[in-house]
Every structure is written in structure tokens, then in C-alpha cells.
Specification:
By secondary structure, the protein is mainly α. About 75% of the residues lie in helices and about 0% in strands. α1 packs antiparallel against α11 and α5 packs parallel to α8.
Length: about 300
């Protein structure tokens, strides 16, 4: 098969998988009648547990030639890039729509730049800063549109924003500390390292005491497990392959496709998506484009 065709197939697959993650969270949390089934902690723990178990067969090979200092950063990457965000997203989706969650997720590239400048002393430019500001304006508009909704709706968007900050920090840490380690190796060690805490959370929250053979619990467990296998483990490997085949710039464009898949699922799920929400998302994506646009001149530090 043509290499370019494979790259586009991987690109579309990643957009669909990651864009569908938000609806899988909903299916883990609620049944078809919108009644709660599993808690946010149980869905997130199942996601992390299943992603770790599916990568477990590759652990021995991945640990080879991995020095202790590097291992510490890989395990930390699992917590910052997967564990904490998984719980934050699930907690948020107990109150807010999946379409909004998917839209706010596109702030990740913006926070890659912000955390890189603040914590890793990375050089930036006024072009990147303008992109960051445009993206933040779009997110502020998105939050303003949803400000009138009851039951702490707006407050729970903060969990999503915090998750994207963790993502941004993790991307910079991996780039600075783990540039010599393959993404598959990082994913394998990081995800398997999350098996013990995920199991502990499932035990503490009483998951194994639930009537798991009942249909609603079985379906919620399947949705949460698929979230881990597809949305975390498989997607990480596919993304690594895409970067190798088509380059980081093309792979990063997945950011633009994810929220639109999330919105389509939201509409299917009965969530109300307004034209203003789509405009706000467009502003965020414009900011992402400006912040990540290739520059002809070397970036200069901005004090």
C-alpha cells in the first residue's frame, strides 16, 4: 500500500479513536437512560488498568537498557500524561458534555508552549505568543457560552483545562528528558507502571463488589476497557508510527480532527451544540495553528 495512503489512514484512525474517547467515557459512566453506573474513578481506573495490561507483554523488552534515572522520568510521564488526565476528564464528564470536553482538549498544544516557556526555559516568539492569546480567547468564549448552565457546569471545565496543562507539561518533559527513548518504550513502561495504583483504586471504590454480570455494569466495563485499549494504548502506538512515517508536523494535525469527531458524537448522544460553540472552537484551532506555524527566522526569547 502507498506510504502516503497509510499515513492518511493512520491520521483518520487517530482522529476517530481519540475523538471517540469522550463518548466512551460517557458510556462508562451512564447507561442508555442517563442513569449513573460506574463512578468517574472506576472508569478512569479501568481505562488505565486495561491500557497497562495490553502493553504488559512488551514490558521486558522495553525495560532493556533503560537506566534508573530515565526510568523515573518514564514512570512520571505515565502519571502526568495519562493517569491524572484520565481521572480529570472522567470527573469533568459527570457534569459537562463530551462535545465541550473534546473542544477544550484542543488547548493541549497551547499549553505545550506555555509550560515550555515557564518551566523548561524554551525560547518562544511573538508569533507563538499571538497564537497562545488567540487560543485562550477562544477558550474564554467557549466558557462564557456555557457560563449560564447550572450545577457547577462551568467549574467542571476547569478539570479539563488542568488535564491539558498536565499534557503540555508532559510533552515538554518527554522532549527534554526522554528524547533518546522511543515512544513505544515510554508508553509500555509508563502504562504498565499504572497497573498497581489502578487496581488499588478499583478495590477501594468497591468496583469488584458490584454486580458486574448485570448488563449495565458489563457494558460500562466494556466501554471503559475499550477506552484504555483503543484510546490510550493502541492510539499511542499508532501515533508513534504516524510520526515515523509522516513526520511530527503532519501527526500534530490530529489535534484539529479530534474535537469535530467529539462534537459529532455529542450530537448523536443528544448534546446540544450551538453555532457559537463551533465558532469558539474555530478560534481555538486558529490559535493552535498560529502557535505551531513554522517560522522562517530563529525564535528569540521573550522576556
Amino acid at each position: 500500500m502507498n506510504s502516503k495512503l497509510i499515513s492518511w489512514a493512520l491520521f483518520i484512525a487517530l482522529c476517530v479513536i481519540w475523538g471517540s474517547s469522550f463518548i466512551l467515557m460517557k458510556w462508562g459512566l451512564y447507561d442508555s437512560n442517563q442513569q449513573p453506573v460506574l463512578s468517574a474513578y472506576q472508569v478512569a481506573a479501568l481505562r488505565m488498568l486495561s491500557s497497562g495490561l495490553v502493553m504488559l507483554p512488551f514490558l521486558k523488552r522495553s525495560l532493556k537498557n533503560l537506566p534508573a534515572p530515565t526510568l523515573r522520568y518514564v514512570l512520571l510521564s505515565g502519571w502526568l500524561g495519562s493517569f491524572f488526565p484520565a481521572f480529570l476528564f472522567c470527573i469533568a464528564e459527570t457534569k459537562i458534555d463530551g462535545a465541550l470536553t473534546g473542544s477544550l482538549n484542543s488547548l493541549t498544544p497551547i499549553f505545550v508552549i506555555i509550560t515550555g516557556a515557564l518551566f523548561f526555559r524554551k525560547q518562544t516568539s511573538w508569533t507563538k505568543i499571538s497564537g497562545v492569546l488567540v487560543g485562550l480567547v477562544g477558550s474564554a468564549l467557549l466558557l462564557y457560552i456555557n457560563a449560564g448552565k447550572p450545577n457547577g457546569y462551568l467549574a467542571y471545565t476547569g478539570f479539563v483545562v488542568l488535564a491539558t496543562i498536565f499534557y503540555g507539561f508532559n510533552v515538554n518533559m518527554v522532549h527534554e528528558r526522554l528524547h533518546g527513548v522511543s515512544s513505544v518504550q515510554i508508553a509500555t513502561v509508563a502504562f504498565t507502571g499504572l497497573i498497581p495504583p489502578s487496581l488499588i483504586i478499583l478495590i477501594v471504590t468497591g468496583y469488584f463488589n458490584l454486580p458486574l454480570t448485570e448488563h449495565v455494569y458489563t457494558m460500562s466495563t466494556i466501554a471503559s476497557t475499550l477506552l484504555g485499549i483503543l484510546g490510550t494504548a493502541l492510539a499511542s502506538v499508532l501515533f508513534y508510527v504516524l510520526v515515523k512515517k509522516a513526520g511530527g508536523l503532519f501527526a500534530s494535525l490530529v489535534t484539529y480532527g479530534i474535537p469535530f469527531i467529539a462534537i459529532l458524537w455529542g450530537v448523536y448522544y443528544g448534546e446540544k451544540v450551538t453555532g457559537m460553540q463551533v465558532i469558539a472552537l474555530g478560534i481555538i484551532l486558529l490559535g493552535v495553528y498560529l502557535a505551531n506555524r513554522p517560522e522562517t527566522k530563529k525564535a528569540t526569547p521573550v522576556e
